[in-house]
# Entry
Amino acid sequence: MKNVITAPIRWTGSKKKLLNEMLLTFDKKKSVYVEPFLGSGTVVLNVLNQNMYKKYYVNDINPNLIDFYRILKSEKEKLFDIILDICKKYNELENISEKEIYYYEMRKKYNEGRIKIHKRAAVFWFLMKSGFNGVYRVNSKNKFNVPFGKKEKIMFDIDNAKIISELIQKVEFFNLDYYSFLEIVSNEINANDAFIYFDPPYLPENNLVRNQLYTKDKFDHGKFVTDLLAYNNRFISLTYMISMADSENATRIYQSDWTYRIDIREIIRIVNPKKLVKSKEIAYINYNLSPSIGLD
# Structure
């Protein structure tokens, strides 16, 4: 791809730098694309831009993220007006101290739920844009608690957002846990026609950082593997990829007789030897890649 579509939401752990090569490994023989952990949306947006599948189903357990995309899909002009107004007010503040006060005032309103859904979606965009490092994190009371990111100016790419709004007209958005979402999808389509891209929450590399979380709830990777095996056993031809950072924990949990491990860095080296990527990104798949690593 000459141009990668940038997601409208700033999000830590985005796959943007790996995307060109990673999409070469997707199972393009299927007609339905399914993504249970949406995150920023970077992956599905570029899959859409390449017109790789006929139907698209995506999900995330974060209601604010899904509400943002649903409104971007159906009522973009109203969303744009509110975001542009927020940007104008923020950028016109005289110094970083005033901007910090504004950020925490917006965060308080967001957490108190005193704003209607359209403005809430815009404020969600603002908090992710101006908060620390694109992190989404909530405390034990489910309150967004990411600190101010000290940005001098924030910009909204309205032209890019308009393109994205058009692209996602094909997408069905869901706000469920991953297994409930998969059950609904399997009732609407023939799951054997689906390719599922899983990008589950961060898996710590070792026990020292096992409790470092981006949400108040700990994601159970062991249960996820058990659930996926049960789901996979119901369908003969279902194919999927699980993205993961390379670690001992990942090997222990995900490497087995029913998955193949692929190194995204190695694919990058083959496809684009001049591209330097430090990421230790790997993936587990349940289908064979051809020697041409998925190229038609």
Observations:
- The CA atoms of residues 5 and 139 lie 32 Å apart.
- The chain has two domains: 16-61+176-285, 74-159.
- The longest strand covers residues 239-245.
